[in-house]
Design goal:
Elements lengths: L3 E4 L2 E4 L4 E4 L3 E3 L2 H12 L5 E2 H8 L7 H15 L5 E4 L3 E4 L4 E3 L6 H6 L9 H7 L4 H36 L13 E3 L3 E2 L9 H12 L9 H7 L11 H11 L3 E10 L2 E10 L3 E8 L2 H15 L4 H5 L2 H18 L3 H14 L4 H13 L3 H12 L3 E3 L2 E3 L7 H12 L4 H17 L3 H17 L3 H17 L3 H17 L3 H17 L13
Parallel strand pairs: 9-11, 10-11
Antiparallel strand pairs: 1-2, 1-8, 2-3, 3-4, 5-7, 6-7, 11-12, 12-13, 14-15
Organism: Shewanella piezotolerans (strain WP3 / JCM 13877)
Keywords: DNA-binding, Membrane, Transmembrane, Transmembrane helix
Protein name: OmpR/PhoB-type domain-containing protein
């Protein structure tokens, strides 16, 4: 088997299970590497899904979802370099050109330790002769020595810090001790609408496993899959199901998660089930990967000596539990109960911009416009004060979102105030590169222009809204704006354009299985 593969801007070292890029080194999971090698060994040939499943996961029964999420993982590792081509209903093929170094070559260690471009040796010459130019080898060894020395010093500092932490922890009583137990991460229950998030249950679970410390305690994806095969991956887990997982695994911690929201506006609800207790919370993020990283940081605090100090933060846990219960109540249709829980959360932490924005959004969606507007204005004007912390929405990257929902609160009865809030929303969203809310704001702006019979401006705003949603590939946003354009052009007597966007919207809705009803005005 080849041990090193050289590509344009990267190299794959099988022995190290790593991919070396110009600016970073990425560790690869064993199954991911096995899948990559299976594709590489069949370069320019289409590998069927069934053959890949039987080759890579020959030790366990898996479905196509596992293959799909691992292919997605490989694409993320190499992005923006395109290495895999999908052939619908057929399979996958490796398409990135590669050269190789054989595993009997003397330079194997150097191949795996050097960066792709830091030394700049001639790949073709190296693979043909099995040697590297002497001067450049010396540079590589000097670089390696410096890096190794730095790593040793860094490691020594870490050991000292850990030692001090352990000594200090002897004076504390840990409520939850996971030092002797294992951790099971369940598939993420996906509540994001559309086909584009079908990878989430297993894919996000696998990503979270990979982000955790103390990997020896965290059960691998291959271990978890047979365990949860009969559990639903798109609905909440029952208490009896959690108990069964504890009974079958002997775990000390079982992690349950749910993903809500839409593209660039996610909420990841979590509950950490311990043997005799549990803690919960909700994380807000513009990407699934970032929300998983936040959750990994939370879980890592419970692994080992960090558990005791975290359990002492009662106020934080109470706040997280309230947010979790609020999201669950909202999902169950108990809106008043959900809002009261977020109000209680803000009493604990008034400067939590994510909770304040979510509560204002719920008020406005429930036609409680004045309450929502008051929350937003107090934040925007900096009237929220707690001890020496003066929270002001203008300090938050989400400022454009505050102004958008303020515009929504005015849209029904004060067009001028709504337009001014939209102007502020667009300006701040451009500054913070918030493409999702640029799409929302321009669509609302277009609707206000239509009401004011400013049709040229309305068309421009709707087309801008569509372009922003297309930039982030948001199926819900794209479909809704296409329906708005179809209705606009129909109103203008431009039947050809109206039909075009109506058919495009129908296709998008069907393709992504979106719960969008075609507007009655567009049905002949």
């Amino acid at each position: 088997m080849q041990q090193v593969f050289f590509g344009d801007g990267f190299k794959i070292c099988c022995r190290q299970r790593a991919i070396y890029f110009d600016d970073r080194i990425v560790e690869v999971r064993p199954k991911t590497l096995t899948l990559m090698l299976s594709l590489i060994e069949s370069t320019d040939e289409i590998c069927t899904k069934s053959s890949l499943l039987s080759t890579v996961w020959d030790d366990i029964e898996c479905d196509e979802q596992v293959l799909f999420q691992t292919i997605s993982e490989i694409r993320r590792l190499f992005s923006p370099i395109k290495v895999i081509q999908t052939f619908p209903r057929k399979g996958y093929a490796w398409i990135a050109p590669l050269t190789t170094a054989n595993d009997h070559e003397q330079v194997m260690g150097e191949h795996c330790l050097e960066k792709v471009s830091s030394v700049g040796y001639n790949v073709k010459a190296a693979t043909q002769t099995g040697s590297i130019e002497p001067e450049k080898s010396k540079i590589a060894l000097a670089e390696l020595f410096k890096k190794t020395t730095a790593k040793l010093v860094f490691a020594l500092l870490i050991i000292i810090a850990v030692g001090l932490t352990l000594v200090m922890s002897l004076n504390k009583t840990s409520v939850i001790d996971l030092t002797a137990g294992t951790i099971v991460i369940l598939p993420v229950s996906n509540h994001v609408i559309g086909q584009d998030h079908q990878w989430v249950p297993l894919g996000a679970m696998d990503q979270l496993i990979g982000k955790l410390n103390n990997r020896g305690k965290v059960m691998s994806t291959e271990y978890v899959l047979p365990l949860v095969r009969k559990l639903s991956r798109n609905s909440s887990y029952q208490g009896s199901e959690i108990d069964k997982v504890f009974a079958q695994t002997g775990a000390n911690l079982v992690v349950e998660t749910e993903l809500h929201g839409t593209v660039r506006d996610y909420q990841l609800s979590y509950r950490l089930h311990f043997v005799d207790s549990s803690v919960a919370g909700v994380l807000f993020s513009n990407s699934v990967d970032n929300s998983l990283l936040q959750l990994a940081r939370v879980i890592n605090q419970y692994i080992g000596s960090g558990a005791a100090s975290l359990r002492e933060q009662f106020e934080t846990e109470l706040k997280n539990e309230l947010i979790y219960q609020a999201v669950n109540s909202r999902k169950a249709g108990e809106s008043e109960k959900a809002r009261k829980m977020l109000v209680s959360t803000l009493a604990i932490e008034p400067n939590n911009s994510s909770v304040r924005l979510l509560l204002a959004q719920w008020y406005i969606q429930d036609s409680r416009l004045l309450l929502g507007r008051e929350l937003l204005l107090n934040a925007i004007e900096g009237k929220v004060i707690r001890s020496d912390n003066n929270f002001k929405a203008n300090n938050s990257p989400a400022i454009g979102r505050f102004y958008y929902w303020l515009a929504m609160s005015y849209a029904g009865n004060d067009k001028a105030a709504s337009k001014q809030a939209l102007t502020d929303s667009i300006a701040h969203s451009v500054e913070h590169h918030d493409l999702l809310y640029l799409g929302y704001a321009h669509q609302l702006e277009g609707e206000l222009y239509i009401e004011g019979r400013q049709f040229i401006d309305a068309e421009a705003s709707l087309l801008q809204a569509l372009s922003f949603h297309q930039m982030i590939y948001c199926p819900m946003g794209i479909s809704n704006v296409k329906l708005a354009l179809a209705a606009f052009y129909l109103q203008q007597g431009r039947a050809t354009e109206s039909d075009f966007y109506l058919e495009a919207a129908k296709k998008s809705i069907e393709q992504h299985a979106l719960p969008i009803i075609i507007w009655q005005s567009l049905i002949n």
